[in-house]
Amino acid sequence: MEASPRIVLQEGEIPAIHQQGDYAIVAITKHGVELARRLQSVFSHSDLYYMSKFERGDEASKGIQLFEGSVRLLFPALFPAYKGLIIIISLGAVIRMIAPLLEDKKKDPGIVVIDDKGEHVISVLSGHLGGANELTREVAAAMGARPVITTASDVQKTIAVDLFGRRFGWTWESAEKLTPVSASVVNEEQVAVVQESGEPGWWLHDTPLPPNIRTYGSVAEALAIEPAPQAALVVTHRKLRAEEEARLLANGVLYRPKVLALGIGCNRGTSAEEIEAVIAETLDELQFSVRSVKAVCTIDLKKDEAGLLAVVHKHGWAFVTYTPEELNTVSVESPSDTVFKFTGAYGVSEPAAKLYSGAAELALVKKKSGNVTISVAVIPFAAAGGAGGSAATAAAAAGGGAADGRR
Question: In this protein, which residues make up the domain named Cobalamin synthesis G N-terminal (predicted)?
Fold first, then answer.
């Protein structure tokens, strides 16, 4: 059998590792290696590391990496390389070994520990932002073990403020109030969830909302409530007015759902700088946040437009194109014979925004600025993430992969 290369661990040196998956499994005992090998066989996207004295001869063919020396010296290489670490070592030992490596819950990988008999899978570190809680559940299910999760929002089946809407791509405007708002949620203080836009399916538990959490369909509705809630989670694409911020965000978190579709037409060769300036100016006029942009939509003649591609790549937006025939299925306020002459479509920005968003009406029908024409749609709740042209092409702005399930 082919010999597997060894990782020789030495003090003061970060070892070279070969990363292939998103997660690393580490074991140092006979029983731990048995568990680790079983887990890797069913848990995709994982790399396995264990001590060379437990070598079986098939490690090279399975991509298993053997190491010699103190396992403590392996973690400085694993920490920045993987999304999560699954460690089959005693909890106390793991804590002592990883303590010097900890930076911040926004940066540290999720850490999951399994006991040597595989009875308990424990979420240790970065339960929410690092994904350790979710990883714990997945690993426990794969092994038939018991998941051990101690974060208050999970055990109480309430809102995890730092994960709220993350599966939809929502982002928070500022992390400053995450901790105090989380405290209000788990301490059962009165909390308002104010949602003006975005996907509605954010409640994932199989129980009703806790009685301390009330939902509102607008900021105005929430502000009319007396007494005022002690904390707020606000979901909107709007830029809040100063009074709204003062009253709701004193102990609140503002989330930006991805609900804005920008229909854009431009002259050939228009620079990225001009396109980006028109987008920024337009959103500012509408008092919409650029963080809520989901996609840029246009005609397929512009699928290779360098300026457009540069802008969507910079921001990580979906880039979606439609054929002239698809664009012509949508009625527009001012059909243009000139545009039809050159493109085969009676409009570009307006019908593109409507097709992508599924919205009957646009927040901005059409605006011409220099070499750029722009329309803005707000994706309705029911249509968020679901509507799109049947034969339109889509490419992810960052990296050129599939955009978001739309074509």
Answer: 76-154
Give the pLDDT confidence score for residue 300 in this predicted structure: 95
Would you call 375 exposed, middle or buried from its count of C-beta atoms within 10 A (0-12, 13-18, 19+)?
Answer: buried
Give me the helices (H) in 83-188, please: 91-98, 132-143, 152-155, 178-186
Reading across the β-sheet that carries 120-125, which strands appear in turn? 6-8, 65-68, 46-51, 23-27, 84-88, 110-114, 120-125, 146-148
Superfamily of domain 260-396: CobE/GbiG C-terminal domain (3.30.420.180)
pLDDT above 90 (res 190): yes
Asked whether residue 296 carries a pLDDT value surpassing 50, the answer given is: yes
Query: If DSSP codes are grouped into helix, strand and coil, which group holds residue 368?
Result: strand
Reply yes or no on whether the pLDDT at 389 is more than 50: no
The answer to whether the beta carbons of residues 45 and 24 sit under 8 Å apart is no
* pTM of the full structure: 0.70
Segments making up each domain of the chain, as ranges:
6-150, 170-256, 260-396
Label residue 401 exposed, middle or buried (CB < 10 Å: 0-12, 13-18, 19+). Answer: exposed
* Amino acid in position 159: I
Q: Is the pLDDT of residue 162 over 70?
A: yes
Write out the two tokens for 256: 């930006």
The position carrying tokens 């020396």 is 69
pLDDT over threshold 90, residue 29: yes
Q: Which two tokens stand for residue 168?
A: 């939809």
Query: Which whole number is the average pLDDT over 181-203?
Result: 93
At a CB cut-off of 8 Å and minimum separation 6, what does 151 contact? 123, 127, 128, 133, 160
Nearest to 290 by CA among 298, 299, 281, 302: 281
Question: CA 146, CA 208: separation in Å to the nearest integer?
Answer: 25
Q: What pLDDT was estimated at residue 396? A: 34
Domain 6-150 CATH (choose: 2.102.10.10, 3.40.50.11220, 3.30.499.10, 3.30.470.30) = 3.40.50.11220
Nearest in space to 330 (alpha carbons), one of 385, 371, 390: 390
Place of tokens 């009703």: 208
pLDDT, averaged across the chain = 88
Which runs of consecutive H residues, i.e. helices, occur in 144-291?
A: 152-155, 178-186, 219-223, 242-248, 272-286
